[in-house]
């Protein structure tokens, strides 16, 4: 990396760059989605994605999860590798053979850990996989690949309008700083979004980072799915960027009554939060914020 200041090269040195690789999510061996993500917490990401798409209601709907790594039993890698995982219901289980290519192994036959297969529990209907439900999500777009407007408007099985969550204004405005403090990788790369869940005491229950903001949200919600915490009544979802339609939708699908964003919301995000009865706060910085919907959940002086 060459550092340039005022048109002059001031340093030439290595730099730490955020990782980004494709993850293919399969259900029952059939490809469902490909997302560009930062490797790590992949099984949480898959759980959060499936919940957000209305395909599962909780961890009980998932029998096992495994990486497709060729002709061997798949299991999570050690935490030291940066890709250690826990499955939706304990250890990854089940034997399976990945196709010789398809991203499961590289040119030298080594596993990429970029293909994840989810086995649904008995009685859980598999998703319809066809041209109208073919997901490809980049690090900046979580809705890419949806075939129609109707496909992006999913109805949550959880109601948040009557959630009694109440947070002090100072607690809400303190959440972004707590989120930044919990970001392990951002300090070294400067290129990661983050999401976290906070309880009524303002303490962050989990923090997840990813190159894509929708992936960070899927990871943190997936961790809650794995821990049996969904629906997430009495929690706020905190995100490091803007509040888009897709993030409000993911929060609603997980039963989250409040979304706190460092940056601006979109018109569709505000409309959906209003429809859901969710509290949406944007531009939460320092001691100020804008509350767009559900102001009754923030205790003001």
UniProtKB/TrEMBL annotation:
TM spans (from-to): none
Location within or outside the cell: Cytoplasm
Ranges in coiled-coil conformation: none
A single GO BP: Mo-molybdopterin cofactor biosynthetic process
A Pfam family annotated for this UniProt entry: FdhD-NarQ
Domain of life: Bacteria
PANTHER family per the UniProt record, alphabetical: FORMATE DEHYDROGENASE, SULFUR CARRIER PROTEIN FDHD
Protein known as: Sulfur carrier protein FdhD
Source species: Frankia alni (strain DSM 45986 / CECT 9034 / ACN14a)
């Amino acid at each position: 990396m060459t550092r340039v200041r005022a048109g002059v090269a001031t340093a030439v040195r290595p730099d730490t760059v955020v990782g980004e690789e494709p993850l293919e999510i399969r259900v029952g061996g059939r490809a469902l989605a490909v997302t560009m993500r930062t490797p790590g917490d992949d099984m949480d990401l898959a759980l959060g994605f499936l919940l957000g798409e209305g395909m599962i209601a909780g961890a009980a709907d998932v029998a096992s999860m495994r990486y497709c790594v060729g002709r061997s039993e798949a299991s999570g890698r050690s935490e030291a590798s940066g890709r250690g995982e826990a499955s939706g219901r304990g250890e990854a289980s089940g034997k399976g053979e990945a196709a010789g290519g398809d991203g499961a192994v590289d040119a030298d036959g080594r596993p990429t850990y970029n293909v994840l297969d989810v086995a649904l529990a008995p009685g859980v209907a598999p998703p319809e996989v066809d041209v109208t439900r073919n997901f490809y999500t980049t690090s900046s777009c979580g809705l890419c690949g949806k075939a129609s407007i109707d496909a992006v408007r999913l109805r949550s099985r959880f109601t948040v309008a009557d959630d009694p969550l109440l947070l002090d204004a100072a607690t809400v405005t303190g959440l972004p700083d707590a989120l930044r403090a919990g970001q392990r990788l951002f300090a070294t790369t400067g290129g990661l979004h983050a999401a976290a869940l906070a309880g009524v005491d303002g303490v962050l229950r989990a923090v997840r980072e990813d190159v894509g903001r929708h992936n960070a949200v899927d990871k943190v919600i997936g961790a809650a799915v794995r821990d049996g915490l969904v629906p997430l009544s009495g929690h706020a979802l905190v995100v490091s960027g803007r509040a888009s339609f897709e993030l409000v939708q993911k929060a609603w699908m997980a039963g989250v009554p409040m979304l706190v964003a460092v940056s601006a919301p979109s018109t569709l995000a505000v409309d959906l939060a209003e429809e859901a009865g969710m509290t949406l706060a944007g531009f939460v910085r320092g001691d100020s914020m804008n509350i767009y919907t559900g102001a009754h959940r923030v205790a003001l002086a």
